Amino acid sequence: MKKKILALGSLTLLSVTLFVMNLCHSTPKKVKAIQNFDKDKFLGNWYEIARLDFVFEKNLNNTTAKYSLNKDGSLKVINRGFNFIKNKYVAATGKVKFVGDSNTGKLKVSFFGPFYSGYTIIALDSDYKYALMAGRSLKNLWFLSRDKTMPQNIKQEYLKTAQDLGYNTSQLIWVQHN
């Protein structure tokens, strides 16, 4: 009886692990990753222009992401922002890996050891100045720019893309950079 319970427990743990691993690579149904992605052009500083808020960025302004290359070919990201409630800057360093080949903008990031969450680059201009990124659900979305602002025509294009994919863009937080 103990062996059956142990086997069932192991099978349950394996099932939960596989389910969680699948979640970290998942994206909403209609979301498609960009192709012909050049990770070297993507490196450097990005300003967060807008986001759908979530717990790790709550009460943050002046949010940025800085991408650099690790020796193993993965990327390092340092997300930084100013918590206007606590009146201090906070930062988190993560490791970004590609899901599949590095020419596709489908990624996963870990800020907590072996636990990864998927995100996908769904729009990126040819000069790598503006990016639209989706998380693993319709509750995660980011507009990024190399500058503290984004041209209105790019904002409108990204808003339409996000709305067409099912995102509730009325809930976007437009980040202040001061």
Automatic annotation (TrEMBL):
In this protein, which residues make up the domain named Lipocalin/cytosolic fatty-acid binding? Answer: 38-176
Coiled coil residues, start to end: none
Q: Which Pfam families match?
A: Lipocalin_2
Q: Which CDD domains match?
A: lipocalin_Blc-like
Lipid moiety-binding residues (S-diacylglycerol cysteine): 24
Sites of N-palmitoyl cysteine lipid attachment are 24
What InterPro entries would the database entry show?
A: Calycin, Lipocalin_ApoD, Lipocalin_bac, Lipocalin_Blc-like_dom, Lipocalin_CS, Lipocln_cytosolic_FA-bd_dom
Q: Which residues form the signal peptide?
A: 1-22
Q: Which UniProt keywords apply?
A: Lipoprotein, Palmitate, Signal
Which Gene Ontology biological process is one annotated for this entry?
response to stress
The UniProt entry, under PANTHER family, shows: APOLIPOPROTEIN D (PTHR10612:SF34)
Protein family (similarity comment):
Belongs to the calycin superfamily. Lipocalin family.
The protein's name in its UniProt record: Lipocalin
Upper classification of the organism = Bacteria, Pseudomonadati, Bacteroidota, Flavobacteriia, Flavobacteriales
